[in-house]
Design brief:
The complex is a heterodimer of chains A (about 140) and B (about 130).
Chain A lengths: L2 H17 L3 E8 L18 H8 L4 E4 L4 E16 L15 E6 L3 E7 L5 E6 L14
Antiparallel strand pairs in A: 1-3, 2-3, 3-4, 3-5, 5-6
Chain B lengths: L1 H13 E11 L5 H5 L8 H8 L4 E5 L2 E18 L2 E17 L5 E8 L14
Antiparallel strand pairs in B: 1-3, 2-3, 3-4, 4-5
The chains are: A alpha+beta (about 140), B alpha+beta (about 130).
């Protein structure tokens, strides 16, 4: 490696290190997040709960409803990211400074099905229509 | 190849720590016990003797619904000096047994989601 290449690599590493200073990226996933595409096979008045369970697995809860039951699938796709720019001055500062930007998005959602007494799906819908949260620490 | 060596070297030099954590809630739902429950023949007493008392019980149009569950959580972290990656995955095994007014099993709904649960630290992607 030539001195120029070595210097360039060092500069690049330093720049990346500074850009990523004190960076945390965390993801929390509970169950398998469902999408409109993954439940597109459900046809109200025709699809049975057995077919839904075969495709999506067992639900998280079943509640009593007239005349059948409400079946609920819950899931969570949370993202958290944080950057602490205080790291930039750490080597030269007598104190331990922090200038942290962080942002988290929970993206909690649930998919509900209403079934009649014969376990045929009569209605289905997502509780919320949240877009997937991004990994962006900028809070403003 | 050269790039891989450089990346690996940077990774090793900046590696601070790794962490793996695991948490479970509830007893394991045994496949044999679930398979032994037959619709129309297995009785409420047999379900209770095979699986124990349910974690949750509710009434569904005059019928009893037993719910058994188990949660499994796996967390992995890669702690570099200036950059940390973590991922926590939680999945559940659920079993619902619907018992009719005559006291026999009407419906069994079960799934095993925790089987493929892995320790992962990379937070991006699916």
């Amino acid at each position: 490696m030539t001195p120029w290449n070595l210097l360039r690599t060092l500069l690049l590493s330093t720049a990346i290190g500074i850009a990523l200073a004190g960076c945390n990226v965390v993801r929390v996933i509970i169950n398998t997040p469902l999408t409109p595409e993954s439940v597109a096979f459900i046809t109200e008045g025709r699809t049975t709960l057995t077919e839904v369970v075969d495709a999506l697995g067992a639900p998280d809860s079943i509640a009593d409803a007239e005349p059948g039951a409400i079946v609920i699938y819950r899931f969570l796709n949370a993202k958290y990211s944080r950057v602490n720019f205080g790291w930039l001055v750490k080597p030269w500062s007598p104190v331990d400074p922090d200038l942290a930007f962080s942002r988290s998005g929970l993206g909690t959602d649930a998919f509900e099905l209403m079934c009649d007494a014969n376990w045929i799906v009569t209605h289905h819908a997502f509780v919320r229509h949240r877009a997937e949260p991004p990994f962006t620490p900028y809070p403003f | 190849m050269r790039l891989t060596v450089i990346l690996l070297s940077v990774m090793i030099l900046t590696l601070n720590a790794c962490a793996f954590s695991r948490g479970t809630l509830g007893d394991e739902l045994k496949t044999d016990a679930i398979n032994s429950i037959k619709k129309g023949t297995t009785t409420r007493a047999e379900v209770l003797s095979q699986l124990g008392a349910p974690d949750r019980m509710l009434q569904l149009n005059g019928r009893d619904l037993f719910q058994y569950y188990r949660y499994d959580a796996k967390a992995g972290s890669l702690l570099l000096i200036v950059l940390n990656f973590s991922r926590i995955s939680v999945k559940s095994d659920d079993l619902f047994v619907l018992i009719n007014r005559e006291g026999t099993v009407e419906e069994v709904i079960a799934s095993n989601r925790t089987e493929g649960l892995e320790f992962r630290f990379w937070p991006f992607g699916n």
